[in-house]
Write a structure and sequence with these properties.
about 140 residues; mainly alpha; 4 helices; 2 strands; elongated
Length: about 140
């Protein structure tokens, strides 16, 4: 008895879905990634605390939150090497987020906005796939 395999209608449906995924990946995903990374950077900056002490007032918020975006990826990062003069591996941005042995107040400014925006990005990509499937 011969194997049935896919019929032409099933193959056409699979090829249509693959074509949809390619179109979404090429046209929509890069725009969505750029928008999401920009929004994450803005959210992180808005939530970053502003120190009222010393010579470094506002440096975390104003001078050390950067973004990089490529076609299919991106990152938002905090570089405090220029904003905090302490040496020996002290990372002010990380200490503000996580605290340090009870010496510093913890202020969540980074991971929550990232988590929120990545969840929205996932939903937007799924919505784009559904939209392309309908067309």
């Amino acid at each position: 008895m011969a194997s049935k395999g896919f019929d032409q209608q099933q193959l056409d449906r699979v090829n249509g879905l693959l074509d949809t995924l390619v179109r979404v990946a090429e046209k929509e995903v890069p725009k969505l990634i750029k928008k999401t990374i920009t929004e994450i950077q803005a959210d992180v900056k808005a939530l970053a605390p502003v120190s009222r002490h010393g010579d470094h007032k506002g440096n975390l918020r104003n001078n050390s939150i950067y973004k990089e975006v490529s076609q299919y990826g991106g990152k938002v990062y905090v570089d405090t090497t220029m904003t905090d003069p302490r040496q020996n591996g002290f990372n002010y941005g990380r200490v503000v987020e996580h605290g340090r042995a009870g010496q510093y107040k913890t202020t969540r400014y980074f991971y929550e906005p990232v988590k929120k925006r990545i969840g929205l990005l996932y939903k937007q990509i799924l919505d784009a796939i559904q939209s392309y499937k309908r067309n």
